[in-house]
Automatic annotation (TrEMBL):
Pfam families: A_deaminase (PF00962). It catalyses: adenine + H2O + H(+) = hypoxanthine + NH4(+). The keyword Hydrolase applies. This is Adenine deaminase. Its EC number is 3.5.4.2. SUPFAM superfamilies: Metallo-dependent hydrolases (SSF51556). Catalyzes the hydrolytic deamination of adenine to hypoxanthine. Plays an important role in the purine salvage pathway and in nitrogen catabolism. It comes from Photobacterium arenosum. Zn(2+) binds at residues 14, 16, 194, 275.
């Protein structure tokens, strides 16, 4: 099964580019940019990655992003991720970035987008990997800040396909961002949002009904509401599930307890993704392998994750047909 998984073409739909910052690059950028970090070696950074919930991860994740200053840093970050995509046979990827993580500390929106986009173009040309870019609003900040971020994104509509919502779900429900998502839809952006990761199933329902989301990021707590599960099957709403992330953040104690295969067998459009691979201990192949190790599946079932991801992606219908 290992060689089947390695060889399987993959499509990634849930990846925070800031979460692909490996400790080695964090160290190199800290030195290049003369930024102090509270670690002495990449191994020491890795040893600090022990999380007990989402918030304990986010605290260290935002701190890591402080080493990203120049356009070249964002390019280097994205390029390193694309090389990992190539190694994992990822043929298409839809990447999140968090503009506010950078604009809040004085890094211009344009610098961030330009660096990421230049690497994505290079990846298309030299690695044959297609991609889309999604800007996420930080849900622990207020809606005014999200509106300001949306307006900065308007001059990059040619590079940004959609908007998302991430960071602390507890206490920051989707309805807090109803108005800014309506504005984003009016501007022609597609919308997605994290929901039902740590938060209750109502967040999934409201993400669909109030934010116009075409996909739900995580969504694994849907199982607590049978009527919602029925709806997700009927409407074939994609869930971008991140197995190793859920394990690291203690959403599930053990991969054997993870519900992704149960959801697949119920007919939900579930996909496998890596979320923040540098922090959670694995890229796409590792996530597929971890699920398959804990839950015996047929090759058809494993391949279904890729077929689901193709259908759930933002690529055009002709291209979907070609990939299927
Ligand atoms: C995230 Cl795992 C996760 N959940 C919510 N927001 C995030 N941002 C980066 N990783
Ligand atoms: Zn995420």
């Amino acid at each position: 099964m290992t060689s089947f998984i390695t060889g399987l073409p993959k499509v990634e739909l849930h990846l925070h580019i800031e979460g692909s910052l490996e400790p080695e690059l964090m160290f190199a950028l800290a030195e290049r940019n003369q930024i102090a970090i509270p670690f002495h070696s990449p191994d020491e950074v890795r040893a600090a990655y022990q999380f007990h919930n989402l918030q304990s991860f986010l605290d260290i994740y935002y701190q890591g992003a402080n080493v990203l200053i120049h356009e070249q840093d964002f390019y280097d970050l994205t390029w390193a991720y694309l090389l990992r995509c190539k190694a994992d046979n990822v043929v298409h990827t839809e990447i999140f970035f968090d503009p506010q993580t950078h604009t809040e500390r004085g890094i211009a929106f344009d610098i961030v987008v330009k660096g990421i986009h230049r690497a994505l173009e290079q990846g298309r040309e030299t690695l044959g990997i297609s991609s889309q870019l999604i800007m996420c609003f930080l849900r622990h900040l207020d809606q005014d800040s999200a509106f300001a971020t949306l307006s900065q994104g308007l001059s990059h509509k040619d590079k940004i396909v959609g908007v998302g919502l991430d960071s602390s779900e507890q206490g920051n429900p989707p309805e807090k961002f109803n108005a800014v998502f309506q504005q984003a839809l009016t501007e022609g952006f597609l919308t997605v949002a994290h929901a039902g990761e740590e938060g209750p199933p109502e967040n999934i329902t409201n993400t669909l009904d109030l934010l116009g989301a075409t996909r739900v990021d995580h969504g694994i707590r849907c199982v607590e509401d049978a009527a919602l599960v029925e709806r997700l099957v009927r409407e074939q709403v994609p869930l971008t599930v991140c197995p190793l992330s859920n394990l690291k953040l203690k959403v599930f104690e053990d991969m054997k307890d993870h519900n992704i295969v149960e959801l697949l067998r119920k007919g939900l459009r579930v996909t496998i993704n890596s979320d923040d691979p540098a922090y959670f201990g694995g890229y796409m192949t590792d996530n597929f392998q971890a699920v398959a190790d804990a839950h015996p599946m047929t090759q058809e079932e494993i391949a279904q994750f890729t077929l689901n991801a193709i259908q759930a992606s933002f690529i055009c219908e002709e291209e979907k047909q070609r990939l299927t």
